[in-house]
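4.2 Preliminary Data

To establish feasibility before requesting continued support, the project team ran the inverse folding procedure on a target of 256 residues. The structure was first converted into the token representation described in Section 3, and no sequence information of any kind was made available to the design step. The complete token record follows.
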């Protein structure tokens, strides 16, 4: 069960962040409304929120997931692979230090974005991406191993449609992973039942299981129906202004 989450609303310079997609510039007012709805959804799932102020120096600072890894046993500060985002970890470190006295950190030359890490019931998938390198992945695998968490590294560097591993995979709980076609059949996922996402709805692969609910991006009726048929209770949220900045549902919070 998650009980808390760290979130940070987008700041005035949100549109100056990094993006590889070309679907228009985000509207800040709409992004703020969507962020408020996202926070309400986390509260409805039973979470207490730690809300950080927007970070004027870091337009991508709202994507807090990339800055840390939190498990039931500890916390580790990531080292984002985009140099512009390195400083985002400072505020997160301040929040986590009091809660986790043995706070670990990814060290150079390692780089690691939290969006590349998918925890799945005592096992973890570590994406090797254009943000997370081999050194970062190896440091994280060792940190997980010390906590009894096994891991697989999944190389997504040739899957151009996704920025991070978790842009293409979600842990649904109950022994199931949601996967985009490019990851279906990858031997690392043999240990779990695969739920395939329709290619038309690939953006929605970045879903988030939060306690009894599964947050999904709205406008993806096939995924909604698939999840309901499996007995899940999807909660749909409009993510249009985050999709424009290459982000998804998981990126907007650190859940623990
Ligand atoms: C970036 O390119 O770093 C941000 N604009 C989006 C980060 C999305 N984070 C995530 O998928 N975990």
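Position-by-position output of the design step:
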């Amino acid at each position: 069960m998650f009980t808390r989450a760290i979130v940070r609303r987008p700041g005035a310079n949100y549109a100056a962040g990094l993006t590889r997609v070309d679907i228009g510039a985000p509207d800040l007012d709409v992004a703020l409304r969507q962020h408020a709805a996202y926070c309400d959804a986390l509260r409805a799932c039973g979470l207490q929120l730690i809300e950080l102020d927007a970070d004027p120096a870091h337009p991508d600072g709202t994507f807090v997931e990339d800055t840390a890894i939190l498990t039931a046993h500890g916390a580790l500060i990531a080292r984002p692979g985009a140099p512009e985002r390195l400083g985002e970890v400072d505020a997160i470190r301040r929040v986590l230090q009091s809660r986790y006295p043995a706070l670990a950190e990814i060290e150079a030359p390692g780089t690691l974005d939290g969006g590349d890490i998918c925890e799945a019931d005592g096992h973890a998938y570590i994406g090797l991406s254009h943000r997370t390198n081999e050194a970062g992945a190896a440091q994280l695998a060792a940190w997980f191993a010390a906590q009894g968490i096994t891991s697989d590294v999944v190389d997504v560097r040739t899957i151009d449609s996704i920025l991070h591993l978790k842009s293409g995979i979600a842990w649904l709980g109950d022994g199931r992973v949601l996967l985009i076609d490019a990851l279906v059949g990858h031997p690392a996922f043999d240990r779990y039942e695969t739920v395939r996402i329709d290619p038309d709805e690939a953006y929605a692969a970045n879903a988030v299981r939060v306690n009894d609910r599964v947050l999904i991006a709205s406008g993806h009726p096939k995924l909604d129906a698939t999840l309901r048929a499996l007995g899940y209770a999807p909660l749909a949220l409009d993510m249009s202004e985050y999709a424009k900045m290459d982000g998804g549902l998981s990126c907007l919070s650190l859940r623990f």
